[in-house]
Every structure is written in C-alpha cells, then in structure tokens.
Amino acid sequence: MSALIEVENLTRVFDVSKPWLNRVIERLPKALLTAVSDVSFGIEENSVYALVGESGSGKSTIGKIIVGLVPPSSGKVEIDGVDLATEPEGARRAAVRENVQMIFQDPYASLNPRWKVRDIIAEPVSARGGDTEGLAERLLEQVGLSAQDAGKYPHEFSGGQRQRICIARALASNPRIIVCDEPTSALDVSVQSQVLNLMSDLREELGLTYLFISHDLTVVRHMADKVGVLYLGTLVEEAPRDTLYADPKHPYTQMLFEAAPRMDAFGRDIDPPKGEIPDAINPPPGCAFHPRCPIAVDRCRKERPRLREVGKTRVACHLAE
Amino acid sequence: MTTPVLSVRGMTVEIPTRRGVLRPVDNVSFDIAEGEILGVVGESGAGKSMTGNAVIGLLDPPARIVSGEVLLKGEAVHTAKGEKLRRIRGKRMGMIFQDPLTSLNPLLTVGEQLSETILEHLPVSQSEAEKRAIAALDEVGIPAAAQRIDSYPHEFSGGMRQRVVIALALCAEPDLVIADEPTTALDVSVQAQIIALLKRLCRDKGVAVMLVTHDMGVIAEAADRVAVMYAGRMAELGPVREVLTRARHPYTAGLMGSTPLASQGQKRLRQIPGAMPRLEHLPDGCAFHPRCDRAEARCRQNPAPDLTACEGRAACWFPLPAQSEKEEVSA
Amino acid sequence: MAETDMPSDAPIRPPSRIKRAWESDLAWSFRHTPVAMISAFVVTLLVLAALLAPLIAPHNPFDPATLNLMNGFTPPGEANAFTGDSFLMGTDDQGRDVFSTILYGMRISLFVGFSAVLLALVIGVVLGLLAGYLGGWTETIIMRVADVQLTFPAILVAMLIFGIAKGITPPEYRDQMAIWVLILAIGLSDWVQFARVVRGATLVEKSREYVQAARLIGRSPFSIMIRHILPNVLNPVLVIATISLALAIIAEATLSFLGVGAPPTKPSLGTLIRIGQEFMFSGEWWILFFPALTLLALALSINLLGDWLRDALNPKLR
Fold this sequence. Notes:
A: alpha/beta; 2 domains; 8-stranded mixed beta sheet; 11 helices; C: MetI-like fold; transport (chain A); P-loop_NTPase (chain A)
C-alpha cells in the first residue's frame, strides 16, 4: 500500500550564525544547526501519524517542511506523488497545497486579532477568489460553534473556542491532510478533551489524515495509529501505537515513558533520567543519545545507528532487539 | 497538633476594575505543614497563581487581599508592609517561577546572586556566604559547582537554570517555598529531574511547599495533599491519592476523567462541557453549575458551601459519594 | 460535538458602532484622564480656529487693501492714537492685526505639520514593513540608511533638503514652492522613527502563527504585509504620528524662524515669531508674545495628547 505522504531522507540545516560582520571580526565559524537529519517515514491515508519528541527534536520543523512553510535542505516530501519543492507544474503544486493544512499550537497567536471570524475562516478560499458565501457559518457549526459567531472578533472567544476556529479555517479548503502542531498543549485539560474529540470526529466524517506533533505521550497514545519518536533531529524509533507503548525498544523511548508524570504514581521516587538534551549545533558523535544512554557501548560513540526493523518496530539503536 | 508553617484563612483577593470588582481568589483556606508539599491545581483562570502571589505579597496593585489572613508560623504576614514584608519574603518565603531565565538577573553571576541573598538574610561573613553558595549549587545537582559559581545565567541550560533558581529560593533557609508552575517550561526528562530534586530538598530541609501547577501528573507525583481550585474558589482539598482516585467534587472528577490516560482504550475522551467562566461573568450560585451534570436548583441559587463548613472534602451541595474501602482494593 | 465552550446560541444583538466606540477602553480612558480631555479641547479649538480663519479673523492680513500703515504698533486692547481702531492682540509694524495673522499663520503651520507627518508616516511605514518582513539585504540597507540619518540632527537634515530644493527651483517659483519644499524637508527628516517602530512591530507580528497560516494559504508577501501585518502595527504608529505632529510644527517654526521656511508673504507661526523678535527689545512685546504663546499651546497639547494615547494603547499600563 503506498502512503499518502512519503518523507524520504529529509534533512534541514539552519544557519544560526551571527551576522557576517560579527563573524569576520570575532573570527567565528559559521554555526549550523541540523534540525532534521535524514528522516524517512510514510503516512497512510486516513491514519494518524504522531511525531513525539522533546524540544529541539525537529518535530515542528518536519511539520513545517511538509506543509511547505520551510524548504528542506535535502531529501524530499511527496504528497500524493507530488514533491512540492521540485514540482514544476504550478497547477499541481496549488492542488497539493490546498490538500494540506495546518493547526498551530497557540490559539491566541494564530488568529489575526483585527479580522472577523468570518473572514479568518474563509481566507483559504477567498485568497484564491473562491466563493465564500455561507462558508464560515457552515464550518463554525461543523466545529461545534454557532453560525452567529462569524461576526465576532477572536478576542471574544476562549482558548478552546479559538482552537475550534483554527480547525474551521483549516477545513475551509477541503483538505485531505492536516498537520497538527501541538494543537492542545496550550489548552486546559477539560478543554483539551473537547478539541481532541472534535478532531477524531472530523477525521471519521471527512476521511482526514493527520500528522500529529506533540510532546505529550498520553495525548499521542489516545490519538495516534503510528508513532515516530524523534531525538535531536533523528527518528530513533517508529512503531504502531500499541506496539510502541507495550514494548518500547529504544533506550530514549524507554526513558521518556519512564520520566513522564503519571496520574497513578503517587509519591513515586523514580531515578530521574540523566543529563539534558545536547546542543544541536554540536551534537555528540555516533548515536546522539549515547551520553545519556544507560546501556551505551563503545560502538555507540563512534557509529551512528541506522533504522532497522525489529518485529513491527523500526529502531535506530545498535543494541535493540 | 503543631502550628502549620503556612495557614491561610478565608483569604479573598479583589481587583477593582471599571467593569466592577473582580474576585480572582474567593474565601480560600488551607494549611501547609512542615515538610509537606501542597499541590494547588486548576485550569487557567482558576486563581491558583494569584493565590500564590497573594500569600507571598506579590500582588500587582490594584489587586489586594480584602479579607482573611495569611499566617506564617502563627505570624500574620498579609498585613506586613515595606521593610518587614521584604524581610519575610526574602528570608522566610522563597519563590520559584515558571521561567527560570527571567527570575535570574542576567548581569550578575549565579554566585553573586546566591551570596548576596545569603548575606542579606543570614548572619554570615562574605567568605562563608560564598562557601554556602557553592554548597547550595552542589546540593541542587549542578556539577562542578565551585567552577560554575562564576558563570552567568545564560551559560546554563534550561534545566540547570531552574536548579539555580531552586538553590536561590532555598539558600536563605526559608520556611515556605512557593513554586509556580516550576516545570511547565521544561522538557519531560528534565521535568522529572526537577520534581525529584524539589521533593528531596523539601523533605530533607523540612520546608513547606506550595506547588502551583495545571499538570495533574506533576501533582500526583510530587504532592502530599492537593487543593483543586475553580473560578477563584477551593473546590476540593484532601490527600492527593484520595482526591485524584476518588474525587468528591464533580469538577475534580470531570478533570480527572477528561485526561487521555483515564479514558485509555476508549474511542472518545470524556469531556466537561463548556469552559471556565471569566471572572467578569461568574454565574450565580455555584460557579461550576452550568458545566455540572449533578446541578440542581440549589446549585443555581446558592453559592457552593464553604469548604471548611461542609463535611467531607468537596465544596459541593451534592458531592459524589465516598467509595467504600472494598471498591478501592478492587480498583 | 454538540457542546460548545460557552452558550453562544443566545441571539445577542451587537451594540451599535457608536455605542461600542463610546464603551471602548480607549474612550473610557479618555473620559477618565482630565489632561487628555483638556488637551483635546485646546487642540480642537485651535484647529477649528485655523480652519475657520477667513470667517473668524477681523482682517485678512494678506490683503494689502485692508491694511492701514497708520495702525502699526497698536498695543493689544488699546485704541490706535491716529485711527481710533482697537485690536485684540495689537498690530505689527505694518498695521496687520496680530490675532488675524496668528489665525492665518496657524493654518500654514498645521498644514505643513500634517502634510509632513503624513509624508514621513507613509515613507516610514512602507520601509519599516519591507525591512521587517523581508529581512536580509533589504533590511540591512534600509536600516543602515536610517541609522546614518539619525546621526544628524533632524533640523540639519531638513535645512540641507531645503537648501537643495531651493537651489533647483527657479527663483520666480520660490515663494510658491516654499511651503511644499518645507513639507518635503520635514517629512524626509522624520521618517526614521516610523520605520524603526514599524520594523520592530513587524518582526513581532511576523513570528506569530496567524502570519504563518496566511503564508500557508498561499498569500503573497505583499498581501500579507498589507492585510495582516499593517493593521496590527498601527497602534504605535498612531502614537508616534501624534508626537511627530507637535515636533513637525516646531520644526517648521524653527526653520521659518531661521528664515529658511515660510516666506513673509505667507507667514507661519514661526515666521511671525521671527518678525516679532525684531521688536522684542523696542517694547512691542505683543508681536512676539501672542504667536509664541499659540505655538506653545498647540505643541504642548498635541504632545500631551500623544503621551496619553501612548499610555492608553499600551496594554501593560492599562
């Protein structure tokens, strides 16, 4: 079965050097940050693929590359067989673009405060000169708000309602794929469940495909069909949800599961994980996780592990089995 | 029973605005004993941070405590002003904020900030203060503390910086520490480190901790008792295990039920309808009644009963029944 | 999916535009700041007086037919020894009514001020948006030019521009062109602060997610700048425009005072002050005093209004 989204050897390097003049005067080398390093995965139609990782893992960058906000340094993203970065035909590019939308983390910053909700929601269509008659009203009702809300401004809504408006805007161009970048991490727990339920309902009704980016393991467990774990820009493990949560193979995934606060762990005294995420500008050689890894051997310090299949899991660790 | 370290009695905070007087904290009472961690949990707008700020005297005017009292080891601190307030705040209460970068002075080394605080509040010499500063950094798990003492805040990573903030909050040997979302800005793996550190230090030093957070998981792991706040009022207060596993207040029950963990394996998450009301538009009666499935006429007319006055732990007219011990064992 | 965050089905009629404006935070703050209300009153009064000068002024100071040289140097309120005419603020050496010249002078001062600020605003906002949104070389060039210009006092830049413009206009048009040259000079010397503030605000807005959402939709950079970013950076622009207006009026007065501004045939407040100071020490104080007082009142109240606006629009101080 061929995937709807195919990500191949995706790499993105950011130039985070100081300005040219400072570099010359202070004799600094160029500082390059590898946010995404040789990542490959595929997303099946009408499934939820989750990317989890901590800060600096490159999960948001991958999302932005897929929607086309950030160009890749190398590698490619094919959506429905079309590579946005190289596709020469404008019409096909536009068609793919319409098919991919995004929901952002901060529902307060992602709506223009000077625009009415009606114009915000209809913008993906009106920007192309399409017919927007009644569109916003219909979408508002679809996401559980009222059609009368169309004439209001964003500041009149609570965080959860704003996220519903963002979802309505994402749906305006009838997309097939929605990239959700931490869609509920700015929301309160009781509101989070409303938004997650809405997203599940919409997926079923409209046959949507989600790329779900999150750091919250419990939310991912609820939403995802397949999960990819990122560490410092590399995909370290990928497995179907139940397999991953039942039997995490990579030491980093294990550490993450162990460290996540648990609702049933009253007064538990865990041995907290060692160390912190290293600087992505000068990542450790070999396996990036080896300085924090409890089972690292000499090979891990020298040779970067490649993804290999162990059962249903793909894992990048020399020692996993 | 010994006097609790912190005793808050009927504290009410009001903010006069042009649209009327807002009451972000309404008649809140709780105690924290020596070495105890009280988790204060609630969603945004619940008044949990405002409660912490009111206790330590950091309310931004025009917000002020209009009634009730705050007693630190039996001594009233809500009436303290000027120099006295400053002494209490620096010496006897410490504060840990969410963002470690903004709570440290970027222009001073961490050593200078630590020894300055120690000198200010403890009768020690300069060299002794420096020694204590190194010991404090060592204690919070900063490697090579003697060398790092001359580093500036920006030279530390996020997790290490929060450790410095904890060292700073604890270096004057306070009775009470208020930690306001201390791990929210941190990654999961670092968060676990900071929680473990906070727990260990408070237990060892016998410091009372008020841990303000929205994260139920953090509360479950760190707190001894938990206070659940809703719309400025205390909804439920009790031992953490009991409140989280056998909630009596419908709001607590809804909050626990709506976490993805609780609905594991189910297709849809349980949800509480609606959102926390804004302070300007608090409903009549119990503030939770529009979202509550147990609400009856009484809840719409009368404000929720006072937590201290009602039997049980929940400020609710119709609390969920207490489950029997047997059920607990089978669960 | 039936639940909403708040019951939003109740059909609530939105209040009318005027009512909303009256109840807005800005209007509320205005009504509760006496300084702002007094300043606004003074500014309105002066602007109205200037606009309605032909109706209010007892004389037309620029119509030689109505002037009587015999009326020269009449002190304010007193009757002239020869003609028996009396003037509210006295007359100047040529017998022109000072009150009338002030009204007409204010017209020129305000016109130059408004036009210069408008010019500076347009240039500054456009360049600021481009620098902030496009970044890279565009930003470097625009902001370095701005930095260089800031190293000269604005009045010097204005004099330079004025000199160049004067040099290239034919002599017979000089008096007619003087006003326009003045506007150009002040406007070009004042765009930098608009550009800097707009660039800063643009950088903040650019990083917000609603701009990313617009990019995702496929809007062009130009359309994003105009439709999304511009409306969100206008608050600080409004504040600066107000304070700049006061500065531009003073700059115009300074230039005119130095004799490089409005010609004596079309005197602005600055020109009047220059004329008046010649008689300062010979006892005819009113020729200087009343124009200077008007300039002070105008600039001060506009400035106070700007200060209030800055505080009222700043969410941190609210």
